[in-house]
């Protein structure tokens, strides 16, 4: 089930969130942030944050927020996290599809991922199968904990089928 995230949900999700930022393989977040800083970043600043819950366990989450303002306010940005025990089960795909529907409901016309780490091959492949394109490569944009400096991709998808 996908629903809006509560503070209690985030607290339950915190071990996954913290593990992901500590790994320094996918997110350019401070690996030493506190639970409260994480909550502000993931749940308060975005327009909305959602959670995927199964059998009472918080397994994944995503946020949706503006990618820009003014004349580019129609572009949104999302971030997704899935717990290690729930990976490979299609949850990220479900969250991404859900986020695209929510984006349109919120008035967004396009979605852009600003920094998909090139070594995160599963995510790159998934986003491409869901219609996203790599529109730019940022050389050495991410200092990966295991691989050192690696490229990041800017990925983009136009969502609104009625306006182009």
TrEMBL record:
Fetch the SUPFAM superfamilies from UniProt: Acyl-CoA N-acyltransferases (Nat) (SSF55729)
Please name the Pfam families in this protein's record. Acetyltransf_1 (PF00583)
Protein's UniProt keywords contain Transferase: yes
**Record key words, sorted:** Transferase
Q: Which InterPro entries match?
A: Acyl_CoA_acyltransferase (IPR016181), GNAT_dom (IPR000182), Mito_N-acetyltransferase (IPR052742)
Origin species, per record, is Enterovibrio coralii
Highest taxon, organism lineage: Bacteria
Alphabetized PROSITE patterns for the sequence: GNAT (PS51186)
Q: What is this protein called?
A: Acetyltransferase
GO molecular function per UniProt = acyltransferase activity, transferring groups other than amino-acyl groups
List residues of the N-acetyltransferase domain: 1-160
